[in-house]
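We emphasize that the prediction below concerns an isolated chain of 259 residues; any contacts that depend on oligomerization or on bound cofactors are therefore not represented. The input was used exactly as deposited, without trimming of termini.
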Amino acid sequence: MTTPKTRLIGATAIAALALAGALVAWQASSDSPADLAQLSDNDKLEILNSGDADAISELLEAEEAAAQAHFARERLERQKREAEIEVERAEAKVRGAAYWDSFDPDSIDLTGFDFSMAEVGLRDERRAMLDNASFVTDFERASDLNYSRSKFDCDPSRYRRIDRVLTREAPLPMPTDASDVARVLDYLADRAALQTGDCSCATQTVPIEKGWRLLSRLANDPSSETISGSFAKDRAMNEIAILFRTALDVEARSFCERG
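Result of the prediction step, given as a token string:
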């Protein structure tokens, strides 16, 4: 029969042997105390249950060092990503400035444009009409994707600035609101991406004044004179803005998804 003292000695011996085995395995595979943190969970548990204060202290120190090293690596990776985004942001800003500074909204061909386009109800008929519309066909498409979508938000406040433009500019013959301007801006962004092959924020951040200029041309089109009544004019302007928003949307999204 095994006495309690014998059982205690046996348990202590087994724990000591397990601890020794864990330490030998660690020493054989590492040259640094920090590598102690690389032991398996079972080996770490053996050390913690061993009662060996020095071994436990070394393990805890190694775990702390490993945690600090992990946090330092994460911080460096985050800083690296942030630096890369800042570089991309600066490059996109330069490209966008070069493109939009030279872009003239008056250069868009509106030949054949008519407010009656807004009255086309059938989806297939409207798509066929848009595919042949001058403001869809009057520019050359880039054959390759030169810059994919940016990894950062282009300009989260740009649409909030539309109200300031509406307040500053004289009213147009057709009633316009912030949504109309935003939709025309999206049309110009899609157009620029397809033309330049640049789907980044360089072409997505359209100057609001460019959109306002195009919207002004639409509102002053002679075909608007056939529309009477404020409600009818408001509805027609809204429908035309939606028409421009959807004119290049599918094509631009498909093109930009190549990246």
